[in-house]
Amino acid sequence: MAVLPQLPVIDGEGVARLLPYGELVDELQAAHGLPAPVSQRVVFGPDGSHESFLALPAWQPDEAIGIKLVTVFPRNRAAGRPSVQALYVLFDGMTGEPTALVDGTELTYRKTAADSALGARFLARDDASTLLIVGAGGLAPHLVAAHRAVRPSIERVLVWNRTPAGAESVAAAVGGIVVDLLDAAVSEADVISTATMAKDPLVEGRWLRPGTHLDLVGSFLPDHREVDDEAVVRSDVYVDDRLATLTEDGDLVIPLAAGLITADDVRADLWELCRGDVPGRADADAITLFENGGGGHLDLMTARFAWRRWSAGQ
Q1: Residue 59 included in any domain
Q2: Do 199 and 260 fall within a single domain?
Q3: Which of 156, 173, 212, 232 is most buried by its number of CB atoms within 10 A?
Q4: How many structural domains comprise the chain?
């Protein structure tokens, strides 16, 4: 009878300790200079349900294999539970042996926020001083920390949420200011990071001023979106990975289907930006849009970094 191996477990506190944002963003940038892992994303759930189950496998040949299993249960927020919960399993890429179990919830928060911050490193103005966070879920404080890591110039954090109590909680945690009027907050922000599960647009393009950077995180399903068509059309569009964002993220899928943009309107992905194939922001007045689609390749990069640091006793 086979005996399950006693795998090392890196819990949430361990993940947070091993993955400070400045170093994680640097690691992701370096990893995008290497050959891309093979990765997929499976998203499904019962018909008519707002709940989702995701499986994100990735394989770096001869190096590592990993899979993240994720549940998205929006109704958990009302009960004070995380709406996104996950587990990550890491395998040895040479032997196929299980290597470690990693808290996937903390890994997801940190990977996602670092992905957004890496995009902002190339696309947000160097003098960006006001960050607007739209949404008050568990990811919001991580986005603030990650953006501050790449733009220390950020002095003010505005927080908007449909439920004011949620905005107040996030603002208290990050030293931010609660705002009631989203249009006014958008018009004065230098960086806008949206992390909601909205099906209908929240941010309108007519509110955006020149030089703004949009960081879109929440719309990971084809029928969900956080910005309207005008915001997309007015922007220089960038993505973390073309395959996922152009087929699965509603912020781009919907205007693509309407013929308002084409795939050629995407100026670059993170692979091209990190390799220096395409420059980032070149015009201080441009509105830049970064679609953060996530993906198993990013989870594998993040889990491998945590495992290396854990193995080294850090």
Answers
A1: yes
A2: yes
A3: 212
A4: 2
Q: What is the mean pLDDT of residues 123-129?
A: 98
Residues 270 and 139 in one domain: yes
Q: Which helix (H) or strand (E) holds 15?
A: helix 12-18
Strand locations in 19-176 (E): 38-39, 42-44, 52-60, 64-72, 84-92, 98-103, 130-134, 156-160
**Of the candidates 174, 176, 182, 186, the residue with the CA atom closest to the CA atom of residue 141:** 174
Confirm whether 113 is domain-assigned. Answer: no
Residue partners of 85: CB distance under 8 A and separation at least 6: 70, 71, 73, 104, 105
Question: Which of 101, 111, 170, 102 has its CA nearest to residue 135?
Answer: 170
pLDDT value at 3 more than 80 = no
- Exposed, middle or buried: residue 91 (CB in 10 Å: 0-12, 13-18, 19+)? middle
Residue range of the domain that includes 279? 126-294
Tell me how crowded residue 249 is: count the other CB atoms within 10 A of its CB: 26
Whole-number pLDDT of residue 80? 79
Residues 135 and 98 occupy one common structural domain: no
What is the spatial distance between Cα 269 and Cα 121, in angstroms, rounded to a whole number? 13
pTM summary value: 0.93
Q: What's the mean pLDDT when you consider all of the chain?
A: 94
Do 144 and 157 touch, CB atoms closer than 8 A? yes
Residue 4 falls inside a structural domain: no
